[in-house]
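Lab notebook, bench 4. Continuing the backlog of folding jobs that were queued last week. Each job is logged with the same field layout so the records can be merged later without manual cleanup. Today's entry covers 7-carboxy-7-deazaguanine synthase, a 209-residue chain. Filled in by technician R.K.

JOB TYPE: sequence-to-structure
TARGET: 7-carboxy-7-deazaguanine synthase
LENGTH: 209
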Amino acid sequence: MKKELQELVDKGEMLPLMEEFYTIQGEGYHKGTAAYFIRLGGCDVGCHWCDVKESWDANLHPPTATKNIVENAKKYSDTIVITGGEPLMWDMSELTSQLKGKGMQVHIETSGAYKLTGTWDWICLSPKKLKLPTQEVYDKAHELKVIVYNKDDFRFAEAQAAKVNENCILYLQPEWSKRDKVVPEIVDYVMANPKWKVSLQTHKYLNIP
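JOB STATUS: finished
OUTPUT FIELD FOLLOWS
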């Protein structure tokens, strides 16, 4: 990447945009809400069950002017979800400042593994074993969403729940390819441990993005 372009990316004035789309939020606290998703490229957390592995290599997603991303977003919805990849690999200050300046509600879905930048109305923390969140993200997360792939993920979920703030809403979500096996286990676990809630990828049941 040319030096001038890299400087703009480093400042958050350009970002590696993978895709952007208007749909229904399918997961967590805001499920069922119309939202505009901005998916950024780049992630080194490397979950083997990731369903958007094509987001991992930021070089595959050319830098796009942040102001253009914001102009597109404002055409569709007042609720914006920044996702990835791992969006906190990039400085989110400029993007969220511009979105907030347009009066939008700005949400992020993050593993929390990088420094928290930007101004957020809602932080969905989905921690991963390979690269744990920073303490700041634990402190500020509005919801904790742990993906359940096998039984050890319940242990991991409890360890993560012990680190978030007391107002954080706790969710267990089945990994899609294992849903037939783990959904009954999640149901039993939540009934035995009602501080948790079940999150489902309802957008996949609705057959929408």
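OBSERVATION: The chain has one domain: 3-144+154-168.
SIGNED: R.K.
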